[in-house]
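Page 37, continued from 36.
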């Protein structure tokens, strides 16, 4: 299958699952605001799809939330099969995606460094060594 088609299939599955997440999990007490499907990677034979889910907050509950999604895998697959016309409805495998949190952590470190050493601070250069020079 062409790379362009795989990208389109992955995006279609991602959007479809995100829409159905509200219907399938809305009444269960699952914090839908905290969970975001960040990407889907489908195997070349379209038999398996790895669904990467970012969960903000809920540090102690993330594994339970992923297990909850796994428990409802058949509901998602059934909705996907009804909504998307593919030769095979892929088996869904939910994975925790921590990339957004890691990115936030890096941005926080960069902001802290910037606060400690502002860019407009005058630093001595090797030429001046902190002293002004006059060429008279």
């Amino acid at each position: 299958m062409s790379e362009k088609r795989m990208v389109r299939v992955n995006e279609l599955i991602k959007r479809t699952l995100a829409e159905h997440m509200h219907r399938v999990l809305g009444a269960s007490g699952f914090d839908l605001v905290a969970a975001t499907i960040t990407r889907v990677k489908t195997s070349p034979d379209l038999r398996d799809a790895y669904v990467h889910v970012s969960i903000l907050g809920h540090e102690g509950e993330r594994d339970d939330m992923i297990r909850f999604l796994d428990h409802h895998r058949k509901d998602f697959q059934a909705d996907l099969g009804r909504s998307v016309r593919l030769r095979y409805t892929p088996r869904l495998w939910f994975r925790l995606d921590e990339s957004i949190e890691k990115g936030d952590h890096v941005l926080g470190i960069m902001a802290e460094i910037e606060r400690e050493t502002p860019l407009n601070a005058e630093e001595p250069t090797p030429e001046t060594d902190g002293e002004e020079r006059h060429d008279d």
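Residues 3-116 form a domain with the GMP Synthetase; Chain A, domain 3 fold (CATH 3.30.300.20). Flag for discussion at group meeting. The CA atoms of residues 30 and 119 lie 44 Å apart.
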